[in-house]
Amino acid sequence: MAIVLGSNRYGKAENRVVRIYRDTDRHEIRDINVSSALRGEFADAYLVGDQSKILPTDTQKQTAYSFSKERGLTSIETYALELGAHFVDTVEYVQSARIEVEEFEWQRVLVDGTEHDHTWVRKGQETRIAAVTVTGSGADRTNAVIGGFKDLVILKSTGSEFTGFLEDGYTLLEPTTDRVMATSLIAKWRFTSTDVEWESTYLGIKKIIIETFATLHSLALQQTLYEMGKAVLEAYDFIAEIRFSAPNKHHFLYNLAPFGVENNNEVFNADDRPYGLIEATVIRDEVPPAPEAWDSYTGLV
Amino acid sequence: MAIVLGSNRYGKAENRVVRIYRDTDRHEIRDINVSSALRGEFADAYLVGDQSKILPTDTQKQTAYSFSKERGLTSIETYALELGAHFVDTVEYVQSARIEVEEFEWQRVLVDGTEHDHTWVRKGQETRIAAVTVTGSGADRTNAVIGGFKDLVILKSTGSEFTGFLEDGYTLLEPTTDRVMATSLIAKWRFTSTDVEWESTYLGIKKIIIETFATLHSLALQQTLYEMGKAVLEAYDFIAEIRFSAPNKHHFLYNLAPFGVENNNEVFNADDRPYGLIEATVIRDEVPPAPEAWDSYTGLV
Amino acid sequence: MAIVLGSNRYGKAENRVVRIYRDTDRHEIRDINVSSALRGEFADAYLVGDQSKILPTDTQKQTAYSFSKERGLTSIETYALELGAHFVDTVEYVQSARIEVEEFEWQRVLVDGTEHDHTWVRKGQETRIAAVTVTGSGADRTNAVIGGFKDLVILKSTGSEFTGFLEDGYTLLEPTTDRVMATSLIAKWRFTSTDVEWESTYLGIKKIIIETFATLHSLALQQTLYEMGKAVLEAYDFIAEIRFSAPNKHHFLYNLAPFGVENNNEVFNADDRPYGLIEATVIRDEVPPAPEAWDSYTGLV
Amino acid sequence: MAIVLGSNRYGKAENRVVRIYRDTDRHEIRDINVSSALRGEFADAYLVGDQSKILPTDTQKQTAYSFSKERGLTSIETYALELGAHFVDTVEYVQSARIEVEEFEWQRVLVDGTEHDHTWVRKGQETRIAAVTVTGSGADRTNAVIGGFKDLVILKSTGSEFTGFLEDGYTLLEPTTDRVMATSLIAKWRFTSTDVEWESTYLGIKKIIIETFATLHSLALQQTLYEMGKAVLEAYDFIAEIRFSAPNKHHFLYNLAPFGVENNNEVFNADDRPYGLIEATVIRDEVPPAPEAWDSYTGLV
Lengths: 301, 301, 301, 301
Prior knowledge:
4 copies of one chain form a homotetramer. Chain A is an alpha+beta fold. In chain A, helix 4 (about 200-215) packs antiparallel against helix 5 (about 220-235). Chain A starts with a strand and ends in a 17-residue tail after the last strand. Chain A is built from 5 helices and 12 strands. An 8-stranded antiparallel β-sheet of chain A has the order 1-2-3-6-7-8-9-12. In chain A, strands 4-5 form a two-stranded antiparallel sheet. Chain A has a two-stranded antiparallel ribbon with strand order 10-11.
């Protein structure tokens, strides 16, 4: 069998673009980490080192910064769609472009109880993400859009159990009807439309996920994930599927009995490793798959 | 000159204690990373490997967990003072104990606009810290107490300049009268009392620091640090000194001129390295120094 | 369209198993980070919280540690194949098991020029990886095996150029015929056999990759990746494909002209972000694909 | 008591200078992370925002890069001494300069068994460090020089015990006469001369430390640290003191008894946190202290 070039792409990863809107005294800030990757007729660069069809990664960087002013940066999904379309539409040899964005949220500081016009602290909670793959031109154009977040660290101190599991010769775990359940949640959802109010949708999905985590009496992290996903899909008909990756951040009950001290689910060791890791997809039956949507470039999104 | 054993200490670092209060349906959570280090008559362990005066680091760990229940964990300064006193008072060979604490804040989630009783997300902003050094017994007892925070990421998009600086043959920097100023601030303050309302004091100091950062028109990060420190010392007479370490997280104006795009302080590159790093102490004149207060054990606090 | 459970798996991630062989005075050490994930008839855990078909992640952990003694740990590919087969063969509801391994290499210290029997320093260079997916039973059994490494930081100070590239209105980059080329390479290769001398094959592939990087005059990182992959596939007929992910760790020539100092490719700034990121697959034509082989669970492998 | 400005300094941290020597076909590489901090007559910058005595941190950066060519970069101690002296000698308001350096070692790759002229892999073991504080002018000039390393990860699989320790009511630990001992060692030594062969001295000290760790039958990590330090001071009379910080990276024997599997110090869990942390200084009696030598600026060195 011949040896050939297979799947390939290239681009510039992790451009740290900060965009300030200052048209009035009340400034606005958007703070992103954006990466672009191109697929296309690039075989000659690999096979013989011919760069004549290669738009440099430095050029992709310049474009990412300039677009934050030229086109604006108000929703990361819109920004990513415009940047992706630019590469496909203006660079002859590009067949598809993937744009991945992390967004870091800032919160206005209070001065005497009033929000300040131009000072913020970094919010520090979940990182919002978007990944857009723009492919083809004209009638063949497709836009695969992923929204989501990562690193939402959430914990409930009761309302979670784990019992009735399968046992084999390596099973030492004791069942529990009351435990701490905590995770650092990654959630990614796929849109079937680009005619979306991106900001309110993001907040709405996050609200559903958090409220379900809080209020569902959990028999397992698996069940919690499924119910969160189902609730999101019921609420937003333009979401085709949602994927979760949830490390079970173990909080082990600390044994204080040797010291004569009661520990009624009050003192825990927050362990680092190993951790349970649960993955789940909740999806509409018969929705056409979109594998390119999920083909992460940087591993960050 | 003879070769001798000099300064030494040992302990258990980074115990991840999570304490849930669940006496009512409305739970409370405290989440800390606590380290302990002991000084004392330990030369024989170093010189000849004799452990008979060495309380194992594992024992220190057990005590840290148990004290979060036995004594409670409501203010990290109080918890650290009690844990430190325990080692000095109960272990014959211990002359002083240092307890370092990082605290991770959690925020109740909202369900239909109401705070939930037992679910939180990690707040994710600054990490609160405390470092306590308890030395000696009886009338000779001293308690050196540091409070503070690290990693408060704060940014202002105007109201900061940098001009009129010294120039030499390696100076290329252009002065600017309007720039983004951002830092990831570390602030540590030394108490001269242990009769303090720790929680309200922490919030009060943080409020002063943030408000000063926001409202002072800054001629340099140095000036901002000094004014923040001065305002804290003016407000709290039981604070003897405050130390800042402030990386100048450079946001470089991105050059869009080659593309015919105006950039009126609107698009920046948030650079990683190198960074300016400014240190300042603001202190009461003639206050006796307390070098042991600042002698960090883990480097975390 | 109905809302249904899609793809899912669960397991225990990042078990830090250290295995010492001490049958003679000359000990051996293997140091791994192993994760397991199971797919199977687990829908009830997600849909209704029924755990009766769920082997706990804690049990998976116990098995990972015990197998390092029961079966031994000499090659990570063999260990992963045995651990994966165990879950599929002994747990009724498991249809496939994925085992991901990172291995940290240790190097014997020298004492008076002689290798010590039981003391090592961590080698600290690339992390070797393996990922095995064992699916089905009996005649339907398939074993997808990936070997590889990550974080091989390699640099050449000449013998690399980048010229003749495509330009558009955002292109500022100047061509260069002599630059530093550096990357932190990830390489993963897929085996079509399990009858492999894993240790010598690993060393042989790494040798080819390093030697190609060193000796090929590079017209682009793309070309270097392709030539490395081609050389590996030419040498090992049981390798079906190899995938590279290569961040272009930019070393920018530092401008010393303002100081009257020549810089003939002698002084560079090693920049952090952004970075070029090049992906390439080199593959045998007509080899059947094995998507499950590449379906990373932890993101570490 | 009046509120005043106390100790302060400022500079540029983490300049990533890479220096290639290419005078012959066999290139050489030095790869450092260098930081500079200045003390002096800078009160006006803090008190009133007057920058007229402030040499910008950007200027310090330019100088650090340029000096790697102008003065060369062969030993980090020499480079740091020259850079520090430059700031003190040429900038009127500077009273002292501290230069901190991390050095990342590279190893030539082999091609057909021969070292390549211009290709290296990053060595990845300990990071060498230096910290120099240059103070005053003319006859008052002092040079405090620290050399050392951090993150030397070293492990012995036998020849270590821990018994006979003090017990109290929180003591659960069992004594052991055979355990794994591992640490990620930080060692810093203070020179009393600048007339030193820096490269051979570094290698010699590292050799002594490693050989002592390997060959000493250890009754405690404390004892191992002391013996390492004593051996270094006996070998180098221009070393005044050496300081160690040694996390006890616990390798806990894994309990395989429930599975009927023997574990004769063969299978361990490499735990992350908490960890024992041992600090020791070995010093020549009556050597004058040099507190400025140890006053870390970046926390990296």
